Amino acid sequence: MTSLWGATWHDRGGRLGLLLLGVLTGMALFAPGFLPDPRAMPDISHGVLLPPGPAHLLGTDEHSRDVLARLVFGGRVSLAVALGAVTLSVTLGALIGVVAGYAGGVIDAGLMRCVDAALAIPRLFLLLIIVAIIERIPLGVLILTIGATGWFGTSRLVRSEVLRLRGMDFVRAAEALGASRRRVIARHLLPGVAGPLAAATTLAVGDVILLEAGLSFLGLGVQPPTPSWGGMIFEAKPYVVTAPWMSLAPGVAIALTVVAVSLVGDALSRSAGATRS
Amino acid sequence: MTSLLEVQDLRVRFPRGTGGITPVDGVSFTIERGEMLALVGESGAGKSLTGLALLRLVPPPGRIEPGSSIHLGDTDLLRLEGEALRQVRGRRIAMVFQDPMSSLNPVLTIGDQISETIQAHAEMSAREARGRAQSLLAEVGLGDGTSRYRSYPHQLSGGMRQRVMLAISLAAGPDLLIADEPTSALDVTVQAQILELLDRLRASHGLAVLLITHDLGVVAGRADRVAVMYAGRIVEEAPTAALFTGPAHPYTQGLLASLPRLRGPRRPLEPIAGTVPVPGQWPEGCRFHPRCPRVMPKCTMEPPLVRLEEQRTMRCWLGVTEG
Amino acid sequence: MSVWLVRRVAQALVTFLLAATLAFFLMRLTPGDPLARLTEDRPVSPETLRALRARYGVDRPLVAQFSAFLGGVIRGDLGQSISHNGREVTELIRSRLPATLLLGGTALLLNFLFGIAIGVFQATRAGTGPDRALTLISLAAYATPSFWLALILQWGLGTELHWLPVAFMQEPWLAGRPWSLAGALDVFRHLVLPALSLALVTFGATARYQRAAMLDALALDCIRTARTKGLPERAVRWRHAWRNALGPMLTLFGLWLPLLVAGSLYVEAVFAWPGLGTLAAEAIAYRDYPVIMGTTILVSGVVVLGNLAADLAHRWLDPRLRTP
C-alpha cells in the first residue's frame, strides 16, 4: 500500500494531483480561521454583489457575504460529503464484492443481477427518487444516501478481482493447505484487491463531488444557508450577468478538485497495474 | 557483386534511466541471394531484436545506435524514412513470427490480410489482388485458395495460420524472408510440414532466409550457414555441416552436447552449467566465461574475432594461437 | 448465435424489470408523503384527500400498488402526473422526447467525433507533450460540472456577446414551423449552445477510453505484422488497430450512457430546452413523483437497451464471437 502511494508520488500526473489536492484541502481546513463567517448575514450596507477587490478577494454575494469565505467553507462541506459517502460506498462494495466472489453460485448470480439492475438506473436518477420526496434533507442523510447508491460498480470490481486472484496458484495453494476462509480473504485476497480498489475509490471521490454539486444545484443537496459549491452555483444563477464571479469561483473550485482527484486516481491505477503484471 | 544483406556492427539500445541496456551489441553478418542463414541462440540472446532491427521495427524506446550499418543491396536501410522505408517492408524484406495466432489480425479475413499487402506494394485492382491472394493461399497448401479466402484466423489451426503468414510474407515478392522461430509454437508433426513448405517456397521464389531459432535440430540439413548468438553477440559463424561436425566455440560445443542424437555412440547429455545472463548483467570480457568449461584468466578481457578458415569465424581467446 | 441472443434479450428484460422494481421500492420506502406538495399550500378536506389518494393509488397496500405499477410499466402506462393537471406521464414523455433525442443525438455525435479523434491522436503519440496536454484537457472537461459550463456558455456567448440564443428551442414566431428553412435554421441556432455544453463535458470520457483502448490495440502482435507488411501508417492505425479497439469501446458505451443522460438533465434545465431533462427538473421542483418515476423508468430502459445494442454490435463486429 505504501509503495502504491510512493509510486503515485513518483508519477508526474500523480504528483501534480497530490499537490493540488493538498493545497485545496489545506485551504478547506485552515483558511476559514482567517475569513468572515460564511453563514452570517452582514449588514446590507456592507456591500451587495461587490466585484472582487482587496477587501473581498472574490467579491460578495447578494446577501453581501464574502464569496471566498463561502467558497472555502463550501469546500469543507463538499469534501466532507465526498469522503463520507465514498467511505460508505467502498466499504459496502468491497464487502459485497468479496461475498459474491467468494460464495459464487446462486448468491453471486443473485447479487450481480441486482447490481446490473441498479447500474441500469443512472445514479443521479436513483438519488432523485430518494431525495426528491424528502423536504430539506439533513446533511447526514444526504451522505448516507449518496454513499448507499455508489457501491454497485465497486462490488463488481472487487468481485472480478477476487475471482481473478482465486484462480491464481498462491491462493489455491493456501486453500489446499487448509487455510481458513477468513484467513485467505484477509491475507491473500484483500491485499491483492487493494491496488485497483484504491484507484477506483479515488476516482469515486471525483464522481461524488460532481454528483453532490449537481444535487445542490437542483436544490436537493446541501441545504442553505450551509454553503456548498453546487449550492453556490445554484444561488448565483440569477446573478450570472451582474455578478459572474459568484458562479465562476465555485465552478472552478469543483473542476480543480475533480481534476486533482482524477490525476491521483489515474496514477494509482497505473501503479496498481504495474505491480500486478 | 555485393551481398543481398550486409549487417555491420549492429547495436540496439534501450535507454533506461541514466544507463541503459544493449541487448544487441555489435552484430555483423551477411546473407547472399537465395542463401539461408540460421541465427541460433537461447532466448534472450538478442536474435529476435536483430530480426526486427533489419526492418527498422525495434520497439520503442529501443533504438539502433549510430555506427551500426544495414545495407540491403545498395540501399542503406538506416537512412530510409517514411515512404521509402515502407516500400522496403514486405516488398524487399518480409517477416514471419513465432505465434501465428497473435500475428494475424483477428478481425480481418485472411484473404484481406493477404490482398492488402499486395495492394500496398503494387498498382492492382481489388479483383486482381484477390486472385493473386487466392493463388498464394493455394501455393501454401490451403486447398484451392478460394474456400479459405473468407476465413478468419481463429477458424484455422496453428499450422494453417502459419501457412497464411507465409502467404502474406510472399505477397509482395520479397528477396529476403526473416523467419523468427516460425515453428516453435506449433505441434511437432506440424513443425515438419511448415519447414518443408518453407524449403519449397524458398526454392521456388529464390528467397534468401534468415532463420531465427533456438533449435539446432531445425537448422541441421536446412541452413547454408549458422551464426551462433550469445548475450547480444555472434560468437561463432560457420557453414552448417562444419559447425555440426567440429564446433569451435565452447558455447557452441555446449549447445551441441546438450542435444540428443539419434545416430552415433550413446553419450550422456550435458547441459551447460549456469543460466543465460539477462541484458544489463553481462560480465566483462567474454560474456560466456562464467559458464565456460575452458575459461582462462584473460577471458575477462574482450575476446577478438578470430578467422578460423574460409567462412568460419569465432569470438574466443581459444582461437588465438600464442607466440 | 440465436440461443445467445434469446438469453441476452431475456437478461436485458429481467434487468429492466428489476430496475423498475428497485425504483418503485426506493421511492415508496423513503419517508415522506408523495402528495405533500399537492396539499401543502391549501387546506384540504379529508374527503378530498381520500379521493386524491385513491386517484394516485397510494391508499392501497404496497403489494397491490407494486403489482399495479409493474403491470403498468409492462403495458406502457406510467400513471398520471401531479403537476400537469393529471396528464398521462407517457403522453408528457412522448411530447418531450423529440427535443431530447435531437439534443442528445447531436451531443453524442460531437462527443464521438471529438473523443475518438483525440483519443486516437493521443495513443499514437503516447508520452509526448501534446498527449499529456490533451490528457489534462480531457480530464478538465470531465471534471467540469455540466450545469456550470452551460451557465457560463449561456452567459458568455449568449448574454454578453449575443451570438446565440440562450433559451428554448425556437423563437416564438417560428414555433410550429420547424420544417421550413428558416425554422430549421432557428432550431439549429438554439441547439448550438446546449449541444456544445453537453458534448464538451462528455467527450473527455470518450477520449480517455479511446486512448486506452487504442494503446492496447497498438501493442498487439498483429500491428507489428501490419507494419512488417509495409502497410501505410494510416491503414495500420485505422484498419488494423482501431478495428481491434472498437470492442472495448463498445463495452464502455453502456457505462457512460448514464453520464450523458444525467448531463442532459442539467443542460436542458439551464437552457430551458423543452425535453425530458426539463420535464424531470420541473417534476423535481413540484415533487411530481409519477413524472420522476416515469423518466427514471424510461432512462433505465434506454440504458438497458444501450447495453444490449453494444453487446450485439460487439458480437457482430468481432468475428471470433460471430463465427464459430
Account of the protein in words:
The complex is a heterotrimer of chains A (277), B (323) and C (324). Chain A has 277 residues and is mainly α. Chain A has eleven helices and no strands. Chain A has helices at residues 2-10, 12-30, 67-103, 105-120, 123-131, 139-148, 151-166, 169-176, 181-217, 229-236, 245-276. In chain A, helix 1 (2-10) crosses helix 11 and helix 9 (181-217) packs antiparallel against helix 11. The longest helix of chain A has 37 residues, at 67-103. Chain A starts with a helix and ends with a helix. Chain B is α/β, with parallel strands linked by helices. Chain B has helices at residues 47-54, 82-88, 100-103, 110-121, 126-139, 158-170, 188-205, 216-219, 240-245, 250-257, and strands at 5-16, 19-31, 36-40, 63-64, 69-72, 75-76, 93-96, 176-180, 208-213, 225-230, 233-239, 305-309, 312-315. In chain B, the strands form two sheets. In chain B, strands 7-8-9-3-10-11-13-12 form an eight-stranded mixed sheet, with helices on both faces. In chain B, strands 1, 2, 4, 5 and 6 form a five-stranded antiparallel sheet that branches. Chain C is mainly α and 324 residues long. The radius of gyration of chain C is 24 Å and the shape is globular. At the A-C interface, helix 4, helix 5, helix 9 and helix 11 of A face helix 1, helix 6, helix 7, helix 10 and helix 11 of C.
Number of strands of chain A: 0
Q: What kind of oligomer do you see?
A: heterotrimer
Q: Going across the biggest sheet of chain B, name each strand in turn.
A: 7-8-9-3-10-11-13-12
User: What distance lies between the first and last C-alpha atoms of chain B, to the nearest angstrom?
Assistant: 37 Å
Report the sheet-strand fraction of chain A.
under 5%
Roughly how many Å is the radius of gyration of chain B? Answer: 21 Å
Low-confidence stretches of chain B: none
| Overall 3D shape of chain A | elongated
What composes the largest sheet of chain A? Answer: none
Separate helix tally of chain A: 11
